[in-house]
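ARCHIVE ENTRY
Sequence with per-residue C-alpha cells
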Amino acid sequence: MGDDDGDWLMVARCLDPTEAHLLRACLEAAGLDAMVADANLVQTHSLIAVAVGGARVMVPEAQLERAKAVLEAYHRGDFALDDDTDVGEPRGD
C-alpha cells in the first residue's frame, strides 16, 4: 500500500468478530489491503458489542469501491462452491 491510498475507511461492520475476520480474508484474497478494528473489544466485552457498533472491517480509501464490490459479490454467493466441488485431498500440514 502506498502513501497515496488515503485514510483507512470502514467497508463493513460485524457484531461477530469471526465474521469480520472472514470478510477481511475475502478482501485480501481479492488482492486488497484490509484490517479489522475493535475485534478484541467486541470479543472481550460482547455485551457492549452493539453499543460500540461491532468490529469494523477497514480498507484504504483508494480501494473502498473495489472492496464494496467484492463484499457485494460475497454476499450474493458468487464465491460459493457447489456441494459436488472437488477441493482436493486434505494436506498433512
Q: What stands out?
A: The chain has a mean pLDDT of 91. The CA atoms of residues 34 and 59 lie 5 Å apart. The two ends are 30 Å apart (CA to CA).
